[in-house]
Amino acid sequence: MRALSIIFGLIVLLSAVSGTSYMQPIVHADKDIPSYAKWGRLAMKETQSKYPDADIIDYLHRGREDKNETSVEKFKLWLQEDDREFGVFIDIEFNAKTENVVDITFRETSQ
After folding, report:
1. pLDDT digits (tens, 9 = 90+) for 29-54
2. Closest CA to 71 of 46, 53, 49, 93
3. Domains (ranges, CATH) in the chain?
4. Whose CA is closest to 86, among 57, 63, 62?
5. Contact yes or no for 88/79 (Cβ under 8 A)
6. Is the pTM of this model over 0.90?
7. 40 neighbors 75 (Cβ within 8 angstroms)
8. How far lies 55's CA from each of 32, 61, 67, 88, in Å?
9. Strands across the sheet with 55-66, in order?
10. Which one of 1, 21, 69, 77 has the largest count of C-beta atoms within 10 Å of its C-beta?
11. Distance (Å, rounded) from C-alpha 61 to C-alpha 75?
C-alpha cells in the first residue's frame, strides 16, 4: 500500500513540475493523422478486394489533385502475390464537398 502511495505521489509531483496531468486523456492525438488517411484506408481495402491473394507490402501517398467539383487522392501500393511483386496506382476521385466517391481507378505497374 505504501508503494502505491509513493507511485501516486510521484505522478502528482511530475504532473505539477511538467504542467501536464498524466491522469487526463490525450485529446491532441488525432492532430498527427494526415488528411488523406481516410482515403488511404479505402485504397487498401479496395486493393485487397481486387487482389485477394496478394499481400500489401508497401504504401505511398502520391498527393492530391483538386479539380472543379472533385478531388483525387493518389496512392501507390506495392503488392506481393506468390513470387510476383508489382505496384498498383490507385486514384480515388470524390466530391470535394460531400466526400462521396465518384470513381476509383487501378493501374498495375512493374516499377
Report:
1. 556 888 899 999 999 999 999 999 99
2. 93
3. 31-109 (3.10.450.390)
4. 57
5. yes
6. no
7. yes
8. 26, 18, 32, 12
9. 55-66, 70-81, 84-95, 101-109
10. 77
11. 5
The better pLDDT of the pair 17, 108 is held by 108
Between residues 42 and 111, which one has the greater pLDDT?
42
C-alpha distances in Å from residue 70, one per residue of 13, 15, 49, 108: 52, 47, 24, 24
Q: Is the pLDDT of residue 19 over 60?
A: no
Which cell is 103 given?
470513381
**Greatest alpha-carbon span in the chain:** 66
Q: Using an 8 Å Cβ cutoff, are 104 and 91 in contact?
A: yes
Any idea which residue has 511483386 for its cell? 85
Distance in angstroms (rounded) separating the CA atoms of residues 36 and 14: 36
Residue 55 CA to chain centroid, in angstroms?
17
Place of cell 472543379: 68
Type of residue found at 12:
V
Cell numbers for 98: 460531400
